[in-house]
Amino acid sequence: MTIRRRTLALAAAASCLPVLTGCGLLDPDPGPVPVTITSSSWNGWDRNHKPTPKITTVDATKGASVPFTGHVDFDITFTDVDEDSVEFTTSEPMSPRGEGGGLSLSDTETEFTVERGETLRFSTPTTDGGMHYEVTLAS
What we know:
The protein is mainly beta. It has one helix at residues 3-22, and strands spanning 33-43, 54-60, 65-68, 74-81, 85-96, 109-115, 120-123, 129-137. Strands 1, 2, 3, 4, 5, 6, 7 and 8 form an 8-stranded antiparallel sheet that branches. It is elongated and about 50 Å long.
């Protein structure tokens, strides 16, 4: 192949990249996506319990893990990272919280997705005390 043909082939291939990326055929790495995780304790026995929220901000990248300690020690591992959503797993089952704050102790999950502009809420699946977690994508 001559140098001219090789140059034309490379230029043609390079001109297709924006089209393929815009159509979603190529998935460019968005880089780290800042995620904010707010944890706070709760106690079912002490009506005067005043939780002190702890805010953790991490740069989510696929495969990265973040340890959490408290009522239940567990890790969050990011499995898919996009500018508009982040998927992760927890090393221990957690109870998703509904809009009203309630949770089910029997319907636990280890796979979660948080979308930009929304707050994902889950808690330790316990009855007398534990931790609440709120996950958002930072701006």
